[in-house]
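Quick one, T. Sequence first:
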Amino acid sequence: SAPSSAKQRAESGNSAEHADPPEFLCPISLSIMNDPVIAADSHTYDRKFIETWFRKGNKTSPITGQALRK
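Structure tokens:
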């Protein structure tokens, strides 16, 4: 099967032109988003990971550090 992570692709010799577009990757998990949502910071996250981020008590953007509302 095809390598799934950026590290696996790099190790297998696949070039960057075959890499997943960065806008498809969740900035928290660094994996392709299955259920993308836009947060108050105007960044897109995979729902599962941003909800976990909030459940862990975080109240700021994982990217900017700006205060966020749930």
